[in-house]
Amino acid sequence: MTDKIIKTPEQWQQSLTDEQFRVTRQAHTERPFTGIYWDETSAGSYRCICCKTPLFSSETKFDAGCGWPSFYASVDKAAVLEKRDISHGMVRTEVVCAQCDAHLGHLFDDGPEPSGLRYCINSASLDLAKETL
Ligand SMILES: [Zn+2]
Fold it and tell me: In this structure, which of 9, 59, 83, 124 has its CB flanked by the most CB atoms within 10 Å?
């Protein structure tokens, strides 16, 4: 793991759209079924929109029917950090990019086998690098 990427909000704002900035830097949640990747089926690597670190693979993506891209595993346990989130009157596990602290989404324990996990991620936090065959 290399050093953390630290930028000011102004610097992030310059490299992101308003929606991407709100989600990744202010922990907003995009409206379900509005993001660009919730029903994406292409093969490839989902990278952090902020720092381009690979976070999830299309191989672990599944349709959770929730309107957000869902994965049952991250590419590397060290790539995604888990944080306790008690906002909105709920106790949830927030997941952030380990490299740049971008808010990604939340982690739930109702996913499919083999992990039983469901990473519920905002499309706005991701950048899909499609595999070209
Ligand atoms: Zn990142």
Answer: 124
48 is in an annotated binding site: yes
| 2, part of any domain | no
CA of 55 to the centre of ligand 1 (A): 9
Question: How many distinct structural domains can be found in the chain?
Answer: 1
CA distance 123 to 99: 18
Inter-residue contact 94 to 10 (CB < 8 Å)? no
What tens digit of pLDDT does each residue of 7-57 get?
A: 999 999 999 999 999 999 999 999 999 999 999 999 999 999 999 999 999
Residue 92 maps to a domain: yes
Contacting residues for 90 by C-beta, under 8 A, at least 6 apart: none
Assess whether 66 carries a catalytic annotation.
Answer: no
Range of the domain at 94: 9-130
Distance 48 CA to ligand 1 centre (A): 5
Residue 4 belongs to some domain of the structure: no
97 in a labelled binding site? yes
Can you tell me which residue has the tokens 């409206």? Answer: 31
Catalytic residue among 120, 121, 124, 126: 120
Domain harbouring 109, CATH code:
2.170.150.20
